[in-house]
Amino acid sequence: MPFRPTFDCLWCGRPWEVRSGDDLEGWAGLCPDCLGQADDNGFLRGRLRSALRERAAAAPAAPVTPAAAAASGPAPGDWEDWYLRRGRFSRGPVYDGPWSMELEGATRWLDSLPLSGVIVELGAGMGWWTGLLAEKGELWLYDNDDASLDAARKRLLSHGLLAHLHQRDPLATPDKLVDAVFAAYLLSTAEMVAGLEAYLAVARAWLNPGGSFVFVDVRSADVGGPIAGPAGPLWSHAVETLRGAALRAGFASVEIEETRSAFVLGRAVVTASTREHG
């Protein structure tokens, strides 16, 4: 499909005008809201992949150097572009294609987990994962940035979903017990093992017996670049370091997997029979 600066969205029919000649919307024929749903819709996902190929063939993108990417990490308003590799966050098909496929795989992994009941999302940001979580239970969002929460609220409303949103430090002492906790790009901000254990202890303190802490983190600059993600640095912990830290923080079992290049995915569970306090 040739690039079109103005079009009616192929999925929802919404009229749209692109911002610049390299916007992926113009190649996909999809408005930003529909393009943002490509992770869970086969047609939209196919259009996204085709658009990435067609844009690259028409005007190959110059790779972004790690140094330049680190110096200009995404502002809150850029987070969706960061996920979708649009505009200045595109690195060309060599990187954008594998990133999209691994993001899709991470989304399927999260969707497959049997989460239910009351769910807390720590550091929700603009709510990329929020809609999926809101379909599983009663969702509470915490972030210390009000603009990010407003973006998450709009994202939820666009999908007809509801959640409780609170401006609050994601690492503050929990104010209740819940059935599941989710965090994206939170653990990677802990620079030392002691800090990692402290973050995991906060996650555990939220959980009822049998509850789960689930996380997604970015592992690689090559596929995940630009290297500065929505929450800052890339993953710097070995899997076994994380597993040991989670066990020391009081989790009874820990499951961790890595996608080929981009993501670290994990689930740590509190024992269902007893739960230590203190």
Q: What is the overall silhouette?
A: globular
C-alpha termini separation: 60 Å
Report the sheet-strand fraction.
15-25%
Number of strands: 9
Under CATH, the topology of the largest domain can be stated as: Rossmann fold
Class of secondary structure makeup: alpha/beta
**CATH H level, superfamily name of the largest domain:** Vaccinia Virus protein VP39
How are strands sequenced across the largest beta sheet? 5-4-3-6-7-9-8
Number of helices: 11
Nearest-integer average pLDDT: 80
Helix content: 25-40%
Write down the domain tally: 2
Instruction: Kindly provide the name of the CATH class of the largest domain.
Output: Alpha Beta
Tell me about the largest β-sheet: 7 strands, mixed
How much is the radius of gyration in Å? Answer: 19 Å
CATH architecture of the largest domain, by name, is 3-Layer(aba) Sandwich
From N to C, what is the helix and strand string?
Answer: EEHHHHHHEHEHEEHEHHEE
Low-confidence stretches: 59-73, 224-231, 274-278
Commentary on this structure:
There is one protein chain. Helix 8 links the parallel strand 4 (138-143) and strand 5 (164-167). This protein has a 7-stranded mixed sheet with strand order 5-4-3-6-7-9-8, with helices on both faces. Helix 3 runs antiparallel to helix 6 (93-112) and helix 9 crosses helix 11 (239-248). The chain has helices spanning 24-28, 32-35, 42-58, 66-71, 79-84, 93-112, 130-134, 146-158, 193-205, 221-224, 239-248, and strands spanning 6-8, 15-17, 118-122, 138-143, 164-167, 178-184, 207-218, 253-258, 263-269. With 278 residues, it is of the alpha/beta class. It is globular and about 60 Å long. Mean pLDDT is 80; it is low at 59-73, 224-231 and 274-278. The chain has 2 domains: 6-100, no CATH class; 106-269, Rossmann fold, CATH 3.40.50. Helix content is 37%, strand content 19%.
